[in-house]
Write a structure and sequence with these properties.
The chain has 154 residues and is mainly alpha-helical. 75% of the residues lie in helices and 0% in strands. It contains six helices and no strands. Helix 1 packs antiparallel against helix 2, helix 2 packs antiparallel against helix 3 and helix 3 packs antiparallel against helix 4.
């Protein structure tokens, strides 16, 4: 939870800095900070979803992935108009607003009672998962996996 919140804070702060520090060093520094924030969120969010959603995880992962794509599409669609209306520094700074909104929503949605129950992820306590993993391991040790198809040249 905290890692995702810190990633969102880094993104929001870096976007805000772009509006007030529009130098080459500021843009490179804020780009690196945004990269760290995005990496943290994208690395930690799928694990959080899988730990907390159990059977709803596939649907939430689909929603999460769709949200990433929709956000990129909205940013691309709005950036030119915002730049023409307010200037590129202001446009960069305005992208801090969705990051702050995401942070506030995250803090509300990921309150301390939403974590997986003690004892590890719920999925690891299912006998069917252990049976499936054991079977896969046994097949792998005997070389029973199907061969990798070879590419044919035409």
């Amino acid at each position: 939870r905290m890692g995702v919140a810190m990633g969102l804070m880094a993104i929001a702060l870096a976007c805000g800095l772009r509006a007030i520090w529009p130098t080459t060093a500021g843009l490179y520094g804020s780009a690196a900070m945004i990269g760290v924030g995005v990496a943290a969120v994208q690395a930690l969010m799928p694990g959080f979803i899988k730990r907390t959603a159990d059977k709803g995880a596939p649907r939430l992962m689909g929603l999460y992935t769709t949200g990433i794509m929709a956000g990129a599409a909205v940013a691309a669609a709005l950036s030119t108009g915002l730049t023409r209306a307010a200037g590129w520094q202001t446009m960069f700074g305005l992208w801090a607003l969705p990051a702050v909104l995401a942070l506030l929503l995250w803090l509300r949605a990921a309150r301390p009672g939403t974590a997986a129950p003690a004892g590890g992820p719920v999925v690891l306590r299912r006998p069917s998962v252990w049976k499936s993993r054991s079977t896969d391991a046994a097949k792998g040790s005997r070389g029973c996996h199907p061969p990798i198809p070879r590419c044919r040249r035409f």
